[in-house]
Amino acid sequence: MSKHRENQHKPARAGRLVTVGKTDAVPPGRGATVKLKDGGEVALFNVDGKFHAIENFCPHKGYPLADSRLYGATVECDLHGWRIDVTTGECLTKKECSLEAYEVVVEDGWIKILV
Ligand code: FES
């Protein structure tokens, strides 16, 4: 059994597309926090013009990953350095602590996340 912290703000899978903002609001190499109406949070990243979304909270101690630094397609948690692949949610530091990734669709300059 994994000892990683349970994410209290993990978005529930509802199969619905949620519009979260315009593409120009998140420049390449940056992340943004997306707060959902149900209380869930997603970290949205722009990797060279392609958008990716994962659970927002680090599986180690829960630091918000959207506020951490992005290296290519890997976000490195600012608190203790755990590394997550933002395209898949895979935790590169501890495989069993991987996060959920969410499908992102861009339509007419709007970013939509499938939650
Ligand atoms: S909280 Fe992210 S590495 Fe510790």
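^ FE2/S2 (inorganic) cluster complex. The chain has no helices and nine strands. The two ends are 26 Å apart (CA to CA).
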